[in-house]
Design a protein that fits this description.
The chain is of the alpha+beta class. It has helices spanning 2-121, 127-132, 137-203, 209-239, 376-379, and strands at 263-265, 268-272, 275-279, 282-284, 293-295, 300-307, 314-319, 325-334, 341-342, 348-352, 363-369, 372-374. The strands form 2 sheets. Strands 1, 4, 5, 6, 7, 8, 9, 10, 11 and 12 form a 10-stranded antiparallel sheet that branches. A hairpin with a 2-residue loop joins β11 and β12. The radius of gyration is 43 Å and the shape is flat. The protein starts with a helix and ends in a 9-residue tail after the last helix. 19% of the residues are buried.
């Protein structure tokens, strides 16, 4: 019995010893599998990191390429903007020359018409009275020569008028061509802005289209705002010039755009370019208003005529005496000159347009009383309003 128990104990001890000897090998086998699995995972992570690094380099290279394209586009935008400014300046000068030529031609037409009326009343200069006064053949020859000279002078004058009309038509055609080129350039500029916005959006997918367009226009908007403020300061300085005539003409103010009565923006605070802005007058805007006649609201003298491309664009200031003035802005055409006398409610001073900093065809109209800003609406028989 004791021998059997001893053998069992020996067998158990042998099993335990074998197990103890085998455990390090088993442990090493398990640890090796774990390490191999871990190394495999680390290799996968390393490869993934290399892929991400390569992808990042590609994205950075793409972004750098887009930034280079953006710089080129900005240069193109600047070139087009400068071209537009030069075209607008040239157009303004040509428009002024054309207006002056038209006025000279109207004066010539008036003189010629006066001459014809005088010839009709005074027959001594006419054909019938000249022939009736002839007594001899020599006098007939002399009269014939006189009539020929008169006819030649009239013919020359008519030819001159015809040539001037042809020149005006040609200049108007050139102005229309420049306007078409300007519109095409503006379309190109808008296309470039959209292209720039698309590139910015592609370079940074987290920026939405609206924000990208905002960023694309931010630099130009800042420039436009600065130019707008400078133009407004110049207009303000013109309005603050003392009147030559200290006596106010008086009378009631007439509505400046007959047939168009809608006020699209009132006097007072409003939002412009995303910022609070004090509107110094009212805007009159309505469908089909482009090209509508603008009349002097009150009788007075034309003080200022500006063919500008920023701020109020083409604008006119009329002095009514006693530092009382009216301003008419964003016009497409000016039909008066500095120093010209105008009659309230009847003298056409120009046409409604959208020149300068304008979002559409309208007339910007201001009234200054004794040098102070006032709301024009009540003086025009309208109620004051607020801008939403």
């Amino acid at each position: 019995m004791k021998k059997t128990t001893a053998r069992v104990l020996c067998a158990l001890m042998a099993v335990v010893m074998l197990a103890m000897l085998a455990m390090p090998y088993l442990a090493r086998a398990v640890t090796s599998d774990d390490l191999e699995q871990l190394e495999q995972q680390l290799e996968e992570v390393r490869k993934k990191g290399e892929e991400l690094e390569e992808q990042q380099e590609q994205q950075e290279a793409y972004k750098e390429n887009l930034e280079q394209q953006n710089e080129i586009i900005k240069q193109q935008i600047s070139t087009i903007s400068n071209s537009i400014a030069v075209t607008q300046q040239s157009l303004a000068q040509k428009q002024a020359e054309l207006d002056e030529k038209r006025r000279e031609m109207e004066e010539t037409d008036a003189l010629f018409a006066e001459r014809l009326r005088a010839m009709q009343v005074n027959h001594s200069s006419g054909l019938l009275s000249t022939l009736l006064a002839v007594n001899t053949f020599d006098e007939l020859l002399t009269a014939s020569t006189t009539l020929s000279r008169i006819s030649a002078a009239d013919t020359s004058l008519l030819e001159k008028l015809g040539q001037e009309r042809a020149e005006i038509e040609q200049q108007e055609a050139e102005i229309n061509d420049q306007l078409a080129q300007l519109e095409a350039a503006q379309d190109t500029l808008e296309g470039k802005k959209q292209e720039l916005a698309a590139n910015i959006q592609a370079a940074d997918a987290s920026i939405d289209a609206t924000e990208a367009l905002k960023l694309a226009n931010e630099e130009e908007q800042e420039k436009l705002t600065q130019e707008y403020e400078e133009a407004r300061k110049k207009a303000e300085a013109e309005l603050n010039r003392p009147s030559q005539d200290t006596e106010f003409v008086g009378g009631s103010y007439n509505w400046p755009v007959p047939g168009y009565t809608r006020i699209s923006s009132y006097y007072g605070w409003r939002t412009l370019y995303g910022k609070p802005d004090w509107h110094t007058g009212i805007d009159i805007s309505q469908g089909g208003i482009y090209g509508a006649s603008i009349v002097a609201s009150l009788s007075g003298t034309v003080q200022t005529v500006v063919y500008g491309s920023r701020g109020y664009g083409y604008y006119v200031i009329v002095d009514h005496g006693g530092n009382n003035k009216t301003l008419y802005g964003h016009m497409s055409q000016i039909d008066v000159t500095v120093g010209q006398q105008v009659v309230g409610g009847s003298t056409v001073i120009g046409r409604v347009g959208s020149t300068g900093n304008s979002t559409g065809p309208h007339l910007h109209f201001e009234i200054r009383l004794n040098g102070q800003q006032v709301d024009p609406a009540p003086y025009l028989g309208r109620e004051s309003g607020t801008n939403s």
